[in-house]
């Protein structure tokens, strides 16, 4: 059973729906400011809960703990400023969690405990202005994670080894932040990563060994940074890379040592207009100069 609960103008949700045999509950685009501690206690069948675009300032510990079958949870576009260690307790079946568009600042190392089967985590567009992910074990409990989206968070730095406990991660987005440099071990442990998005940051260089752990990488976006040069071995280990974007940087040349990797590219997506020398290696290599 699906239930769309629209136009709730009161301050909180009580127990209006918890006797219904619901599998999907949509409470989006209301003005909900709080959740009754027992609002969902009898919704044992619930698999999808949508609380996005409300006014929630927090998720009280235990509020969702009875939803053992919940697979999808949207709490995006609220006013959540912090999460406790018990915010997601009992949600062992959860595979998708949207927390984007909130006001989250720092995250603790137990914030995501209790989510062993989570595949998709959205943390984009939170409003913290001086944030950094300081705890190296923040994502430690999320061993099954496939997609992690951290775009537009004003991140200035990443703790080394931050993603080392995510062996199955296939997509990572760090676009639209304020990253000016990356530690050489920033991507340690990401041997399964296929797509990495770093566009729209302030990167002026890449450490020579930064991308070495990413031997499964197929798509890399470094556009709209401040890159002036690339280390000769920057892409040397990326034997599966098929898409690379370097547009809107300040590159004057590409180092010859990286040609073995570039030969394997099916698409070389747009170098910067200042790029003086690029060679077309074979018929599968498509190069476009954007002015």
TrEMBL record:
Entry's localization field: Membrane
Pfam families tied to this protein: LRR_1 (PF00560), LRR_8 (PF13855)
Top-rank taxon, per record: Eukaryota
Key words, A-Z: Leucine-rich repeat, Membrane, Repeat, Signal, Transmembrane, Transmembrane helix
GO biological process: axonogenesis; positive regulation of synapse assembly
One cellular component (GO) term of this entry: membrane
Membrane-protein topology: Single-pass type I membrane protein
Protein name as it appears in the record: Uncharacterized protein
Source organism (scientific name): Serinus canaria (Island canary)
